From TrEMBL:
<keyword id="KW-0238">DNA-binding</keyword>
<keyword id="KW-0010">Activator</keyword>
<dbReference type="Pfam" id="PF08447">
    <property type="entry name" value="PAS_3"/>
</dbReference>
<feature type="domain" description="PAS">
    <location>
        <begin position="6"/>
        <end position="72"/>
    </location>
</feature>
<dbReference type="GO" id="GO:0006805">
    <property type="term" value="P:xenobiotic metabolic process"/>
</dbReference>
<keyword id="KW-0805">Transcription regulation</keyword>
<dbReference type="InterPro" id="IPR013655">
    <property type="entry name" value="PAS_fold_3"/>
</dbReference>
<dbReference type="GO" id="GO:0005634">
    <property type="term" value="C:nucleus"/>
</dbReference>
<dbReference type="Pfam" id="PF00989">
    <property type="entry name" value="PAS"/>
</dbReference>
<dbReference type="GO" id="GO:0004879">
    <property type="term" value="F:nuclear receptor activity"/>
</dbReference>
<dbReference type="InterPro" id="IPR013767">
    <property type="entry name" value="PAS_fold"/>
</dbReference>
<dbReference type="InterPro" id="IPR001610">
    <property type="entry name" value="PAC"/>
</dbReference>
<keyword id="KW-0804">Transcription</keyword>
<protein>
    <submittedName>
        <fullName>AHR protein</fullName>
    </submittedName>
</protein>
<keyword id="KW-0539">Nucleus</keyword>
<dbReference type="GO" id="GO:0000976">
    <property type="term" value="F:transcription cis-regulatory region binding"/>
</dbReference>
<dbReference type="InterPro" id="IPR000014">
    <property type="entry name" value="PAS"/>
</dbReference>
Length: 354
């Protein structure tokens, strides 16, 4: 009951709770961080907060982690952001209810949901409080006293529009193999797309749910993600269970285990058709795909393409992304076309959806 009460209070709050240690590690974030920045609570906890903060704002954030803001403290600008925090003895600190420990400042945070700057300006309001129960030890092995951590409520500077309020609760996440084969989908995603997890995990790389006109664009961002760890904002159409195309704004990210990419997590936000159309017009001004990276190969087929004469035969050549072999049983080489290729993905689609 207490959890539900806290959860409902967080939903009503225009922002999210953040607790950051003196070293800059995120000790806690409320799950509502996903509604504002697009990052899942689990992804940010125990990570450096500076990974999320605009480079120019990092010194200001570090300054606010220190109890003394005056010139007597070593300046953040003069220290490396990765340097260890200053360890205070209890008698060096003011009482916990001191006004010296109150904090209110603005920082720009990385935002997966923003399609302009990629950052969201947040006002952080709270105070430094002792973080108990850490049992950290100094270099000589002695237990360190509890240290101050920043407890703050982070709220956007700009009040959210009605549209943002309506759509923030529609954000959903999917999990994929490295070739984009779907592995899991959260409850909101199942409602929005209409599929069960079993239906999403059917044989194929997941591209069979993507609109043919968006496939090369998605594949290019897929290649970028494999190289850099993140796809960047990608706007495309997904096929829903009721045979409709749903525009989504997505950001895909590699999740590593023991230093190696293990799977992909995608945060997605549904868009109205007008928003999707605007992105499509902007996209059409750029070349649809580049073949300079080596991950993409020209795909030539001498086989007839039933149902798609105009769509493909006028193009002559299409891209085929190199993908790991499908682990599912029963993948057919329909018309001799590799079902793992983009062309194979389109061939699995029902032509009636177009």
């Amino acid at each position: 009951g207490l959890y539900l009460l806290i959860s409902s209070l967080l939903q009503a709050l225009n922002g999210f709770v953040l607790v950051v240690t003196s070293e800059g590690l995120i000790f806690y974030s409320s799950h509502t961080i996903q509604d504002y920045l697009g990052f899942h609570q689990v992804d940010v906890m125990h990570q450096s907060v500076f990974e999320l903060i605009h480079t120019e704002d990092q010194p200001e954030f570090r300054r606010n982690l220190r109890w003394a803001l005056d010139a007597g403290e070593p300046s953040a600008a003069g220290k490396s952001l990765s340097s260890s925090a200053v360890i205070y003895k209890p008698d060096q600190l003011p009482p916990e209810n001191s006004s010296f420990l109150e904090r209110s400042f603005v920082c720009r945070f990385r935002c997966l949901l923003d399609n302009s700057s990629g950052f969201l300006a947040l006002n952080l309001q709270g105070r430094l409080k002792f973080l108990h129960g850490q049992n950290e030890r100094s270099e000589d092995g002695s237990v360190l006293p509890p240290q101050l951590a920043l407890f703050a409520i982070s709220t956007p500077l700009q009040p959210p529009s009605i549209l943002q309020i309506r759509t923030k609760n529609m954000i959903f996440r999917t999990k994929h193999k490295l070739d984009f084969t779907p592995l899991a989908c959260d409850a909101k995603g199942k409602i929005i797309l209409g599929y069960t997890e079993a239906e999403l995990r059917m044989c194929g790389t997941g591209y069979q749910f993507v609109h043919a006109a968006d496939m090369l664009y998605c594949a290019e961002n897929h290649v970028r993600m494999m190289q850099t760890g993140e796809s960047g904002l990608t706007v495309f159409r997904l096929l829903t269970k009721d045979k409709r195309w749903k525009w989504v704004q997505a950001n895909a990210r590699l999740v590593y285990k023991n230093g190696k990419p293990e799977y992909i997590v995608v945060t997605q936000r549904p868009l109205v058709d007008e928003e999707g159309g605007e992105h499509l017009r902007k996209r059409s001004m750029h070349l649809p795909f580049t073949f300079a990276t080596g991950e993409a190969l020209l795909y030539q087929s001498t086989h007839p393409l039933p149902g798609f004469p105009d769509l493909f035969q006028s193009k002559g050549k299409l891209s085929k992304s190199k993908k790991p072999s499908c682990s599912h049983v029963g993948c057919s080489q329909k018309n001799g076309i590799d079902p793992r290729s983009l062309l194979g993905a389109v061939m699995q689609q029902d032509k009636a959806v177009y």
